[in-house]
Amino acid sequence: MTLADSIDALLPQTQCTQCGYAGCRPYAEAMAAGQASINRCPPGGERVIADLAALLGVAPVTLDPACGTHHPFEVALIDEEHCIGCTLCIQACPVDAIVGANQLMHTIVTELCTGCERCVAPCPVDCITMVPAGRDWQDDDANAARTRFQQRNTRLLRRHDEAAGPAARTLANKPALMATTDPQDKQQRIAQALARARANRQ
Ligand code: SF4
Ligand code: SF4
Ligand code: SF4
After folding, report:
1. For the chain, which end, N or C, has fewer CB atoms within 10 Å of the first or last residue's CB respectively?
2. Please, what are the domains in the chain?
3. Ligand 2 test: best mutation among 95, 99, 146, most atoms within 8 Å of CB?
4. Which numbered atom of ligand 2 lies nearest the CA of 128?
Protein backbone atom coordinates (compact mmCIF):
# COMPACT_ATOMS: atom_id res chain seq x y z
CA MET A 1 0.00 0.00 0.00
CA THR A 2 1.43 3.40 -1.00
CA LEU A 3 1.25 6.53 1.14
CA ALA A 4 -1.37 7.90 -1.29
CA ASP A 5 -3.44 4.74 -0.72
CA SER A 6 -3.24 5.19 3.06
CA ILE A 7 -4.24 8.85 2.80
CA ASP A 8 -7.05 8.07 0.35
CA ALA A 9 -8.42 5.49 2.79
CA LEU A 10 -8.99 8.28 5.32
CA LEU A 11 -10.85 10.62 2.96
CA PRO A 12 -14.69 10.63 2.81
CA GLN A 13 -14.88 9.90 -0.94
CA THR A 14 -17.78 12.25 -1.63
CA GLN A 15 -15.79 13.43 -4.71
CA CYS A 16 -17.07 16.96 -4.08
CA THR A 17 -13.85 18.70 -5.32
CA GLN A 18 -14.06 21.33 -2.57
CA CYS A 19 -10.42 20.57 -1.76
CA GLY A 20 -9.52 22.04 -5.15
CA TYR A 21 -8.69 18.68 -6.72
CA ALA A 22 -10.69 16.55 -9.15
CA GLY A 23 -11.66 14.11 -6.40
CA CYS A 24 -10.41 12.48 -3.23
CA ARG A 25 -7.70 10.42 -4.91
CA PRO A 26 -5.98 13.38 -6.64
CA TYR A 27 -6.02 15.26 -3.32
CA ALA A 28 -4.53 12.21 -1.58
CA GLU A 29 -1.76 12.03 -4.18
CA ALA A 30 -1.01 15.74 -3.76
CA MET A 31 -0.73 15.30 0.03
CA ALA A 32 1.49 12.25 -0.41
CA ALA A 33 3.77 14.35 -2.63
CA GLY A 34 3.90 17.10 0.00
CA GLN A 35 2.07 19.50 -2.31
CA ALA A 36 -1.19 19.99 -0.37
CA SER A 37 -2.08 20.73 3.24
CA ILE A 38 -4.22 18.41 5.34
CA ASN A 39 -7.02 20.90 6.02
CA ARG A 40 -8.81 21.15 2.67
CA CYS A 41 -11.64 18.60 3.06
CA PRO A 42 -14.91 20.16 4.36
CA PRO A 43 -16.91 16.90 4.35
CA GLY A 44 -14.21 15.24 6.46
CA GLY A 45 -13.98 18.17 8.86
CA GLU A 46 -11.84 18.09 11.99
CA ARG A 47 -12.02 14.30 12.31
CA VAL A 48 -10.32 13.67 8.97
CA ILE A 49 -7.78 16.43 9.67
CA ALA A 50 -6.89 14.67 12.94
CA ASP A 51 -6.59 11.29 11.16
CA LEU A 52 -4.37 12.78 8.44
CA ALA A 53 -2.21 14.57 11.01
CA ALA A 54 -1.69 11.29 12.90
CA LEU A 55 -0.82 9.39 9.71
CA LEU A 56 1.60 12.02 8.43
CA GLY A 57 3.10 12.93 11.79
CA VAL A 58 2.19 16.60 11.59
CA ALA A 59 0.20 18.91 13.86
CA PRO A 60 -3.56 19.21 13.22
CA VAL A 61 -4.73 22.55 11.79
CA THR A 62 -8.20 24.00 11.43
CA LEU A 63 -10.21 23.50 8.26
CA ASP A 64 -9.32 26.01 5.53
CA PRO A 65 -12.46 28.19 5.29
CA ALA A 66 -11.64 28.93 1.64
CA CYS A 67 -12.57 25.30 0.87
CA GLY A 68 -15.96 25.41 2.60
CA THR A 69 -17.53 24.52 5.90
CA HIS A 70 -18.28 21.21 7.55
CA HIS A 71 -21.99 20.50 8.05
CA PRO A 72 -24.22 17.47 8.71
CA PHE A 73 -24.59 15.07 5.80
CA GLU A 74 -27.10 16.15 3.16
CA VAL A 75 -28.35 14.49 -0.02
CA ALA A 76 -29.70 15.92 -3.25
CA LEU A 77 -33.41 15.90 -4.09
CA ILE A 78 -34.94 16.60 -7.52
CA ASP A 79 -38.28 18.38 -7.79
CA GLU A 80 -39.47 15.98 -10.45
CA GLU A 81 -42.42 18.19 -11.46
CA HIS A 82 -40.00 20.76 -12.82
CA CYS A 83 -37.30 18.52 -14.28
CA ILE A 84 -36.99 19.05 -18.05
CA GLY A 85 -34.84 15.97 -18.62
CA CYS A 86 -31.75 17.80 -19.83
CA THR A 87 -29.35 15.16 -18.35
CA LEU A 88 -26.86 17.80 -17.12
CA CYS A 89 -27.11 16.49 -13.55
CA ILE A 90 -26.37 12.92 -14.63
CA GLN A 91 -23.26 14.11 -16.39
CA ALA A 92 -22.15 16.02 -13.30
CA CYS A 93 -22.73 13.22 -10.77
CA PRO A 94 -19.37 11.57 -9.97
CA VAL A 95 -20.88 8.36 -8.57
CA ASP A 96 -23.81 7.61 -10.92
CA ALA A 97 -26.42 8.34 -8.26
CA ILE A 98 -28.95 9.82 -10.73
CA VAL A 99 -31.20 7.91 -13.11
CA GLY A 100 -33.07 9.38 -16.06
CA ALA A 101 -32.83 9.85 -19.79
CA ASN A 102 -32.94 12.70 -22.28
CA GLN A 103 -36.26 14.60 -22.00
CA LEU A 104 -37.48 12.27 -19.25
CA MET A 105 -37.86 12.92 -15.54
CA HIS A 106 -34.70 12.36 -13.49
CA THR A 107 -34.49 11.07 -9.96
CA ILE A 108 -31.77 10.55 -7.36
CA VAL A 109 -30.98 7.21 -5.79
CA THR A 110 -30.66 8.58 -2.27
CA GLU A 111 -28.71 5.60 -0.96
CA LEU A 112 -25.93 6.31 -3.50
CA CYS A 113 -25.80 10.10 -3.14
CA THR A 114 -22.61 11.40 -1.50
CA GLY A 115 -24.02 14.90 -0.99
CA CYS A 116 -21.28 16.39 -3.16
CA GLU A 117 -23.65 19.05 -4.62
CA ARG A 118 -22.05 18.80 -8.05
CA CYS A 119 -25.46 18.29 -9.70
CA VAL A 120 -26.99 21.46 -8.20
CA ALA A 121 -25.31 24.26 -10.19
CA PRO A 122 -25.67 22.72 -13.68
CA CYS A 123 -29.48 22.34 -13.41
CA PRO A 124 -30.95 25.00 -15.73
CA VAL A 125 -34.30 25.12 -13.91
CA ASP A 126 -32.89 25.03 -10.35
CA CYS A 127 -34.98 22.01 -9.41
CA ILE A 128 -32.28 20.25 -7.34
CA THR A 129 -31.95 21.08 -3.65
CA MET A 130 -29.89 19.65 -0.83
CA VAL A 131 -31.85 18.23 2.11
CA PRO A 132 -30.76 16.71 5.44
CA ALA A 133 -29.88 13.04 5.00
CA GLY A 134 -31.02 12.20 8.53
CA ARG A 135 -27.99 10.02 9.06
CA ASP A 136 -24.20 10.23 9.14
CA TRP A 137 -21.86 9.41 6.26
CA GLN A 138 -20.19 6.14 7.24
CA ASP A 139 -16.98 4.34 6.23
CA ASP A 140 -19.03 1.81 4.23
CA ASP A 141 -20.56 4.72 2.26
CA ALA A 142 -17.09 6.06 1.53
CA ASN A 143 -15.81 2.70 0.31
CA ALA A 144 -18.85 2.22 -1.94
CA ALA A 145 -18.51 5.77 -3.32
CA ARG A 146 -14.82 5.22 -4.11
CA THR A 147 -15.70 2.10 -6.10
CA ARG A 148 -18.52 3.82 -7.98
CA PHE A 149 -16.29 6.82 -8.79
CA GLN A 150 -13.57 4.52 -10.13
CA GLN A 151 -16.07 2.47 -12.17
CA ARG A 152 -17.56 5.63 -13.67
CA ASN A 153 -14.16 7.03 -14.62
CA THR A 154 -13.17 3.73 -16.22
CA ARG A 155 -16.42 3.64 -18.19
CA LEU A 156 -16.12 7.26 -19.34
CA LEU A 157 -12.53 6.76 -20.46
CA ARG A 158 -13.52 3.64 -22.40
CA ARG A 159 -16.53 5.32 -24.02
CA HIS A 160 -15.14 8.82 -24.34
CA ASP A 161 -15.81 9.26 -28.04
CA GLU A 162 -19.39 7.95 -27.81
CA ALA A 163 -20.15 10.01 -24.69
CA ALA A 164 -18.67 13.23 -26.03
CA GLY A 165 -21.43 13.78 -28.60
CA PRO A 166 -24.54 13.92 -26.39
CA ALA A 167 -22.63 15.59 -23.56
CA ALA A 168 -21.43 18.34 -25.86
CA ARG A 169 -24.95 18.84 -27.23
CA THR A 170 -26.61 19.20 -23.84
CA LEU A 171 -23.84 21.41 -22.48
CA ALA A 172 -24.15 23.54 -25.60
CA ASN A 173 -27.86 24.02 -24.86
CA LYS A 174 -27.31 25.42 -21.37
CA PRO A 175 -25.78 28.80 -22.34
CA ALA A 176 -28.73 29.46 -24.67
CA LEU A 177 -31.12 28.91 -21.77
CA MET A 178 -29.04 30.84 -19.25
CA ALA A 179 -27.68 33.60 -21.53
CA THR A 180 -30.16 36.26 -20.53
CA THR A 181 -29.84 38.33 -17.37
CA ASP A 182 -33.47 39.46 -17.69
CA PRO A 183 -35.36 37.36 -15.07
CA GLN A 184 -38.63 37.58 -17.01
CA ASP A 185 -36.96 36.40 -20.21
CA LYS A 186 -35.27 33.59 -18.30
CA GLN A 187 -38.61 32.51 -16.80
CA GLN A 188 -40.15 32.49 -20.27
CA ARG A 189 -37.34 30.35 -21.65
CA ILE A 190 -37.66 27.91 -18.76
CA ALA A 191 -41.44 27.78 -19.19
CA GLN A 192 -40.97 27.02 -22.89
CA ALA A 193 -38.45 24.29 -22.07
CA LEU A 194 -40.88 22.80 -19.54
CA ALA A 195 -43.72 22.88 -22.07
CA ARG A 196 -41.54 21.15 -24.67
CA ALA A 197 -40.49 18.49 -22.16
CA ARG A 198 -44.10 17.85 -21.07
CA ALA A 199 -45.28 17.69 -24.67
CA ASN A 200 -42.55 15.18 -25.47
CA ARG A 201 -43.56 13.04 -22.49
CA GLN A 202 -47.15 12.87 -23.68
S1 SF4 B 1 -14.51 14.66 0.05
FE2 SF4 B 1 -14.37 16.41 -1.34
S3 SF4 B 1 -12.98 17.85 -0.31
FE4 SF4 B 1 -12.75 15.87 0.70
S5 SF4 B 1 -11.01 14.95 -0.36
FE6 SF4 B 1 -12.85 14.21 -1.38
S7 SF4 B 1 -13.15 15.61 -3.08
FE8 SF4 B 1 -11.72 16.62 -1.68
S1 SF4 C 1 -26.86 13.15 -6.85
FE2 SF4 C 1 -25.87 15.19 -6.83
S3 SF4 C 1 -25.21 15.46 -4.71
FE4 SF4 C 1 -25.67 13.29 -4.97
S5 SF4 C 1 -23.71 12.34 -5.52
FE6 SF4 C 1 -24.71 12.85 -7.44
S7 SF4 C 1 -23.94 14.90 -7.98
FE8 SF4 C 1 -23.47 14.54 -5.81
S1 SF4 D 1 -30.25 19.09 -14.45
FE2 SF4 D 1 -32.27 19.59 -13.56
S3 SF4 D 1 -33.66 19.72 -15.32
FE4 SF4 D 1 -31.79 18.70 -16.04
S5 SF4 D 1 -32.27 16.51 -15.84
FE6 SF4 D 1 -31.24 17.13 -13.96
S7 SF4 D 1 -32.89 17.69 -12.52
FE8 SF4 D 1 -33.77 17.59 -14.58
Report:
1. C
2. 3-56 (1.10.15.40), 74-201 (3.30.70.20)
3. 95
4. 2
